[in-house]
Structure formats: structure tokens, C-alpha cells
Write a structure and sequence with these properties.
The chain is of the alpha/beta class and 429 residues long. The chain contains 15 helices and 15 strands. The strands form three sheets. An eight-stranded mixed β-sheet has the order 3-2-1-4-7-8-9-10, sandwiched between helices. Strands 12-11-13-14-15 form a five-stranded parallel β-sheet. Strands 5-6 form a two-stranded antiparallel ribbon.
């Protein structure tokens, strides 16, 4: 078993460190956040992910998982730090965290060591950014003095530990030996297939996966806008269209968020701006959805100034506590900018007030995230509390029958008819 140093203990790095330790490796977890290190030293986490607390506690108790403020000598180093975007119109990858992680590893890098960039990155980052930094700091050459590879994560928040083990992986090396050595390390815990390629191809593969999702969500969102314009129900139309054996339209929504789908397409655009008009247009469509939702609420209420609105959900997707790039936050900003008083609730975050308490005197409830807890809301209990019986559902999640029976007028994103004309078609019963 190897001694592995994992740099970055966030949503990707900490699960990797925990899984490696459970596979028998000696793991050093490195982070710049003292709160993260203090929690890890106690065998705890600050990330809500099913099973992660237990796995971390076991690793720390066994002595195979320890916390450090800076990298220590190891046989393998995994860089799992954020790669956000910066800029407004022309968004570009911010590689400062990647560069800093590589700089921190370089002084302890020894001949024959393996460095893996796990962070999702623009094509060329491994060979053209990480490699030169490590070479300057260590005096060794990538592919000869040390091994260098890229192995992008393929995980879904809420199911991270399972997917780390069972998903197929793509590993790209700056040379064949680097890819094969990285494969051997990951083979100690990965049960899915492992495919080898070069580093730049591996970087592009991950970006292609998330860009595919983003483009198809943009198509669904455009269909939602078209359906509202035509006075039909997009959810019903999509359900019927998907009965074609070669059609699978995704679900529209209030925007696209998270650490991957809302970010990764910009890395492709940045690498080849002349050849990515479709990707750029899709990003524009999805980025515009929060404003569309605010306009939809304004239409329902006849204006937003002075209105009291309760928003349900602030995370970027259902049943996780991750708020990175959340479109819900943008919806709230648009509502507030237009003069509305917004009361926030998220079922995945501890709150001082319940939905019922927040709903007192409200003009509208707006569902932005389809947390399962919101399916259990009792509209008959909320009806006497609100000022106006209006609810906007941006996820086609709430039961039309239950809410309308309680007296609410339910307006769905993408439903030009405002109500489902055919109960049970395109909507949960």
C-alpha cells in the first residue's frame, strides 16, 4: 500500500482521502482551512455526504488518515482543489488554486513520485500548468523524474462514496508510464473500468460530459419558454416527446448550478472560442433562467415591489447542502432587486423558522429546489397563513391536485396553461 498525500479536502478531496484510507493506504489530508483540518483531526467532517462521517472516523481512528497544513513526502500526490470561473461576459478558468497546490507539493516531490490532478480543468492544464510548476520547484522533469497524470472525478453529490468506487474512470498521463501508475493506484479501490489516454484528452472528456448535460438542459429550458409563449404545458410535451425511442429531453428548471455543469462548459469555450457557439449560447440560455423565474413570479403577482415571497430551496440541486453556483441565489437577488421582501428556506440547512412560520402574510411561495422534504408540505396548513394563495413551482415537483384543492393557484415554469389540463400527465399526482 502507498503513502498518499491529498491536497484539498473539499467535496472531492475528502471523500477520496477517506476511500483511499479504507483501502489500506496511509493518507495525509492537506487543506488551507483550519476548520477543515480541526474537524478531520477529530475524525469529523464539515461536509454532509451519506456515509462520509463514518468512513472518515474509521480512517482517523485507524491512524491511516491524518490532517496536515502542508504537503508531506509521499509516493503519490492527488490535487483536488477548486477550479472556479471568473469574469462576467467572457468567463475563464481560475487556476490559482491548482497552481498553489502544485507549488506546495513541489518542494517535497521526489524522483519516481506520482502526481495526479483530480480537479476538473481546461485542456492542457496538467501538462502546461501543473507540470512546469512541479518541474521548477523540484528540479525534476515530468514523465522522467516524476510521473504526472489527470484523473477527473465522476461523482454525484449525495452518492459520492458509491460512485467513487463503482464508476468507470478515465486516466490521462503525460506519458504511458504515468497513466499506468495512476491506474494502479486507483485500481486499489475503483471497481469500475479504468480507461487510459493522454492527459489533455482526459481533461476534455470530463468537460464534454458536463457540457453535454448543460447543452441539453438549455434545450429543455428553451422548450419551457416556447411552451409558455404558446400556451401549452412543456412538462406534458416533454414527457410525450420522450416516448420516442431515440429522444431523451432533460428537465427544465430555474437555471444550472453546482461545481461542474455551470462551470465546465466555459473551460471548453476558453480553449476554443471560435468553435463553440453552441456551447456559448447554451450557457447564455441557462444563465438567463433565474431572471425568467423572477419575471414569472412578477407576472403571477402583478409586480414585485412590496411583495412578500417565501423561496423554498437555496442549494444547487435536490437533497444536498451544496450551494455552489446555485441558480436559486440568483433568483432571490432578482426578486430583491425588484423590491420584493424575500424569506429564504432550505430543507437541507438548519433554519430558525419553519416554512409555516415564514409563510405568514406571504404573497407567494416559490419552489426553487425539489428537496424531498417539500413534497411533505401540507398546503391546507399553509393556506390560512398566507396573504395570497399563489405558488410557483419551477421544478414540476408539487402535486397540482393537493395544492389546488387547498385553494392555491399553482403556476409551473414552462406551463403556459398555468394549471395541468390533464391531471397526472407531466406532473406528479
Amino acid at each position: 500500500m502507498a503513502r498518499v498525500c491529498v491536497v484539498g479536502l473539499g467535496y472531492v478531496g475528502l471523500p477520496i482521502a477517506a476511500v483511499l484510507s479504507s483501502a489500506g493506504h496511509s493518507v495525509i489530508g492537506v487543506d488551507t482551512n483550519p476548520r477543515v483540518l480541526e474537524a478531520l483531526a477529530r475524525g469529523c467532517t464539515i461536509i454532509r455526504e451519506p456515509g462520509l462521517d463514518t468512513l472518515v472516523a474509521q480512517g482517523v481512528a485507524s491512524g491511516r488518515l491524518v490532517a496536515c497544513a502542508r504537503p508531506q513526502p509521499a509516493e503519490a500526490f492527488i490535487l483536488a482543489v477548486p477550479t472556479p470561473v471568473r469574469g462576467l461576459a467572457n468567463k475563464r478558468a481560475d487556476l490559482r488554486f491548482v497552481a498553489a497546490a502544485a507549488e506546495s507539493v513541489a518542494p517535497v516531490l521526489k524522483r519516481g513520485n506520482l502526481v495526479i490532478l483530480e480537479s476538473t480543468s481546461p485542456p492542457g492544464t496538467t501538462a502546461e500548468v501543473v507540470g512546469p510548476i512541479l518541474e521548477r520547484g523540484s528540479g525534476l522533469q515530468a514523465g522522467q523524474g516524476f510521473l504526472l497524470a489527470h484523473c477527473p472525478e465522476r461523482i454525484l453529490p449525495g452518492n459520492v462514496l458509491h460512485e467513487l468506487v463503482h464508476n468507470d474512470r478515465v486516466i490521462g498521463g503525460v506519458d504511458r508510464a504515468s497513466a499506468e501508475t495512476a491506474r494502479d493506484l486507483y485500481a486499489s479501490f475503483v471497481q469500475g473500468e479504468v480507461f487510459l489516454t493522454d492527459a489533455t484528452t482526459a481533461e476534455l472528456v470530463k468537460l464534454m460530459e458536463n457540457t453535454y448535460r448543460d447543452v441539453n438542459i438549455a434545450l429543455a429550458n428553451e422548450f419551457a419558454l416556447v411552451a409558455r409563449h404558446l400556451g401549452v404545458n412543456a412538462w406534458e410535451a416533454i414527457e410525450l416527446a420522450n416516448r420516442h425511442p431515440r429522444v431523451q429531453i432533460l428537465r427544465p428548471g430555474p437555471g444550472v448550478g453546482g461545481h461542474c455543469i455551470a462551470v465546465d462548459p466555459w473551460f471548453v469555450v476558453g480553449a476554443a472560442p471560435r468553435f463553440t457557439p453552441l456551447i456559448t449560447a447554451s450557457r447564455a440560455v441557462n444563465d438567463a433562467m433565474p431572471l425568467h423565474v423572477a419575471d414569472l413570479v412578477a407576472d403571477v403577482l402583478g409586480g414585485l415591489a412590496g411583495r412578500r415571497i417565501v423561496t423554498l430551496g437555496m442549494t444547487y440541486k435536490a437533497n444536498v447542502d451544496d450551494t455552489r453556483e446555485s441558480p436559486a441565489a440568483e433568483v432571490v437577488e432578482h426578486l430583491q432587486h425588484a423590491g420584493a421582501e424575500v424569506r429564504l428556506h432550505d430543507a437541507m440547512v438548519a433554519a430558525d423558522l419553519s416554512v409555516e412560520e415564514l409563510a405568514v402574510g406571504a404573497d407567494c411561495l416559490v419552489l426553487l429546489v425539489d428537496h424531498q422534504a417539500y413534497a411533505d408540505l401540507d398546503p391546507s396548513m399553509l393556506a390560512p397563513l398566507v396573504r395570497r394563495l399563489e405558488v410557483v413551482d419551477t421544478r414540476n415537483f408539487l402535486s397540482v391536485e393537493r395544492w389546488t384543492e387547498a385553494g392555491f393557484r399553482l403556476t409551473r415554469l414552462g406551463d403556459g396553461r398555468r394549471r395541468a389540463a390533464i391531471p397526472g400527465v407531466g406532473a406528479p399526482a
